[in-house]
Amino acid sequence: MPAARDRPGGPCRGHRQAGPDGAGAGLCYHSAAVRGAGRCRLPARRGADDAAGAPPVMSRLAVWIAPVDPRLITVNTRAPRRWRRLGWGLLLALPLRVTPAAPPDPEPLLALATAWLEDAARATAPQAQVTVQPPARATPLPACDAPQLFLPPGKRAWGKVSLGVRCDTPAWTLYLAAQVTVPGEYVVARRTLRAGEPVAAADLELRAGDLAALPDDTLTDFAQAEGLTPRHGLAARQPLRAGLLQRPPLIQQGQTVPLVIQGAGFQVLSAGVALNPAAAGETVRVRLESGKTVHAQTTADGRATLRP
What we know:
Blueprint (H helix, E strand, L loop, with lengths): L31 H5 L11 H5 L3 H6 L19 H13 L13 H16 L6 E4 L15 E3 L8 E9 L4 E10 L1 E7 L14 E7 L18 E2 L14 E2 L9 E8 L2 E9 L8 E5 L5 E6 L5 E3 L2
Parallel strand pairs: 9-13
Antiparallel strand pairs: 1-4, 2-3, 3-4, 5-6, 7-8, 9-10, 10-11, 11-12, 12-13
């Protein structure tokens, strides 16, 4: 006669039985509640409550790794007490699904930064054009009623700039990347210019471009270069800069120059030998007859003036 666990219609009919390999034969896989009701007369398998007493939802809680809405979770109140405690513990440990607040619209901040930077740039270059990049910060910042805009110390609104936006309440600081372009014309050499050769208008031409992308001392008018001489040779089409040119020397090295020594209520005339070439307004070193060397300023009439 077949055992109770095998009989059709027996007390264990329709419930989990031992595997086909015979492991666990004669052991009941029911929970303690089922066994206590007398519906299973087989001896309890060790850990039966763990296998059969846990509601399916509890066994799935252990493998859930994504945040879920806790309203979708139910705890079987008929399960053993320790499983109910485990279920509530897992429920409280699950991360809640929080809908993030919509980030603030960056357009008002960009409009404010663009207007501020345009005012700063057009104070010196009325034709300046400004482009401000949207903030790259992933985390949205709290709204600010009175944002303060600023440039780093020593930086002007010219070329690539980092525009700062500061808020006092709540306290935060943000930097925006911006580009200031200044369309205009600049002076270039029409031909190769030799060092020391005086520059004439026929040697120059204008070229259009972004002045903000050029060095600060780039010349924009012929009058700024006429009469000056290159410090060294300049190639054709090379932009002319103030630092590349110099006034023609009025005093040559080794030349005997008149020296005027001026003081409060007196003036002494002397002479000496120039130790370096010098243009008007530049300093010339003069060696006196006594062998002493003094530093004097070259005047437009070719004399050296010394003021003690």
